[in-house]
Amino acid sequence: MKFIIVFVALFAFALAAPNRDAETLRYDTDIDPLSYKFGLETSNGIRTNEEGQVKDVGSEDEAIVVRGSYSYIGDDGVTYSVNYIADKNGFQPQGAHIPVA
Questions:
Q1: Using DSSP, how many helices (H) and how many strands (E) does the chain show?
Q2: Which residue has the higher pLDDT, 89 or 15?
Q3: Count of other CB atoms within 10 angstroms of residue 18
């Protein structure tokens, strides 16, 4: 459960890594025992928003459901956007540039 949160957060921050000159314009967090929200925007065009919530608390089916999005400007100047859900079915990204099986 925590792995998904850490993975998605690290993935979002990894997008910002190549341009070390980028400044953080916005960073919001709201963390509770059973949910969280965060948002990030940098000067190089990266934006991410995410929220997670524990579902079925105390049951055998207890799991975290994460919903979010991120966008960035590619080397070609195009803004790429991804919306995703991460839950018991895995990481499910959707974006115009992502191939569909």
A1: 1, 6
A2: 89
A3: 10
pLDDT of 32: 93
Q: Which residues pair with 20 in a beta bridge?
A: none
Cα 101 to chain center, whole Å? 22
Please tell me the predicted confidence (pLDDT) of residue 101. Answer: 78
DSSP secondary structure letters along 6-46: HHHHHHHHHHHTT-TT--EEEEEEEEETTEEEEEEEETTS-
pLDDT reported for residue 20: 64
| Strand, helix or coil for residue 4 | helix
10 Å CB burial of residue 76 (0-12, 13-18, 19+) is exposed
CA 64 to chain centroid, in Å, comes to 14
Tell me how far CA of residue 72 lies from CA of 31, 32, 50, 82, 89, in angstroms.
25, 28, 15, 9, 26
The C-alpha torsion from 88 through 101 and 8 to 72, rounded to 10°, is -150
Confidence of residue 100 (pLDDT cuts 50, 70, 90): confident
